[in-house]
Design goal:
Distance between the termini: 22 Å
Number of strands: 0
Shape: flat
Strand content: under 5%
Structural class: mainly alpha
Oligomer: single chain
């Protein structure tokens, strides 16, 4: 994961502020190789998202596992990623 060590704790603090969870609970793992994978182009993994929705249905969190693909529009992020690479 490409996170600038100089600014990582600032990002951790922002996350802590937004989530109302103390930064100390995030400090050892968030935005490190111990954290979840983040696509460098911010692309949504539609198959993984679908699996998450299905898991929530199986756990009884949501009543129905809708198909997410029709609601995902990656065109904007694809365009932005192409601009950054140029």
């Amino acid at each position: 994961m490409d996170v600038d060590p100089k600014t990582r704790m600032d990002a951790v603090k922002q996350l802590a502020d937004a989530s109302k969870i103390p930064a100390e609970q995030y400090a050892s793992w968030v935005y490190t190789n111990r954290d979840y994978y983040y696509d460098p182009n911010a692309m949504v993994d539609v198959a993984r998202l679908q699996k998450n929705v299905e898991t929530m249905k199986e756990a009884g969190i949501v009543p129905t596992a809708l198909k997410v693909a029709p609601y995902v529009d990656l065109s904007l992020v694809k365009e932005a990623a192409a601009r950054v690479k140029d």
